[in-house]
Design brief:
This protein is an alpha/beta fold. It is 41% helix and 16% strand. An eight-stranded mixed β-sheet has the order 1-2-4-3-5-6-7-8, sandwiched between helices.
Length: 293
């Protein structure tokens, strides 16, 4: 989802501030690594009609692919997680179309398209299986990836990813429908200015926002049949007050999975890595590092 929206627009700035603070803290601990704009780790891959930007860190173990959230999301949201997990495995952090340094292209955005881009990057980097961790829109993309390529994924962690627009709370649905593409720059001018400096075509900012909003309006992101087809062990993670994932819908999603596990992060909304980062990372790391039976 455009993950730093909340049920009330007035809360958006506070949530963004919390994430920026979290990321700044993580960068200090990690030696001020400029995640998302790191020339030492950055790569481009031409996929269909776009150049997709991604960064790689660490070595060893099963590669871990990171898929960030929508609109406000980018590689930098995984700062602390990359710093921790790249200590003992290779991490591949992909920038979704239009986000940061990845190009927008000409095709309408869809989760199937984003999954196709991710698959191209993964297969460029490795011929083997990977683990995948997706947040928000990245989690929905991971469902597409796992259902479409069962041979690709060893384990999957999906954080805050609903199946459809109707899974959002009524308040979040209304706020989304009432919003305009220009609201993001009005409410968060410094954020948008920083993003435009990364974008290959900053003049397409409003078009980019419209494309993300159209994709997120659904109505269906992934079908129940797709979820049921996922054979990889999958950990579903969500905050207990996530406006984009009503708790009953989270449980429904978990129950559809053949090999599912569920972690509800207490006292958190959508951005659990900013709310309780260590708690969330520990849960994900325990799941990903668990020996195969």
């Amino acid at each position: 989802m455009s993950q730093y929206r909340n049920v009330k627009i007035s809360m958006c700035t506070a949530i963004i501030a919390a994430v920026i603070s979290c990321c700044a803290h993580a960068q200090t601990k990690a030696g001020a690594v400029p995640y998302g704009a790191n020339p030492a780790a950055g790569h481009y891959l031409h996929a269909d009609d776009v150049n997709i930007y991604y960064e790689t860190y660490g070595n060893g173990g099963t590669p871990l692919v990171l898929l960030h959230g929508g609109l406000y999301g980018y590689i930098e949201e995984f700062n602390e997680l990359i710093g921790e997990l790249s200590k003992h495995r290779r991490v591949i952090a992909i920038a979704t179309r239009g986000h940061g340094r990845s190009e927008i292209g000409a095709e309408p955005f869809s989760y199937a398209l984003l999954a196709r881009d991710a698959f191209a990057v993964i297969r460029h980097e490795t011929n083997g299986k990977v683990d995948v961790l997706g947040f928000s829109d990245g989690a929905v993309t991971s469902y597409e990836l796992a259902s479409g390529h069962p041979e690709l994924i060893r384990r999957l962690v999906a954080i805050g990813g609903p199946r459809k627009f109707a899974d959002w709370t009524p308040g979040a649905q209304k706020e989304f429908k009432d919003a305009k593409a220009s609201d993001v720059e009005r409410d968060s001018p410094d954020f948008v200015s920083a993003r435009k400096k990364l974008m290959p075509q900053p003049e397409r900012w409003l078009e980019f926002v419209d494309r993300v909003n159209t994709m997120e309006s659904g109505p269906v992101y992934v079908t129940d049949a797709q979820i049921q087809s996922i054979q990889a062990p999958t950990l579903i993670v969500a905050g207990d007050h996530d406006p984009y994932n009503q708790i009953t819908k989270i449980v429904e999603l978990f129950q559809l999975l053949p090999k599912g596990e569920l972690a509800i992060i207490p006292g958190c909304g959508h951005v659990v890595l900013a709310c309780k980062g260590n708690f969330t990372i520990t849960a994900a790391e325990d799941f990903l590092d668990r020996p195969e039976k």
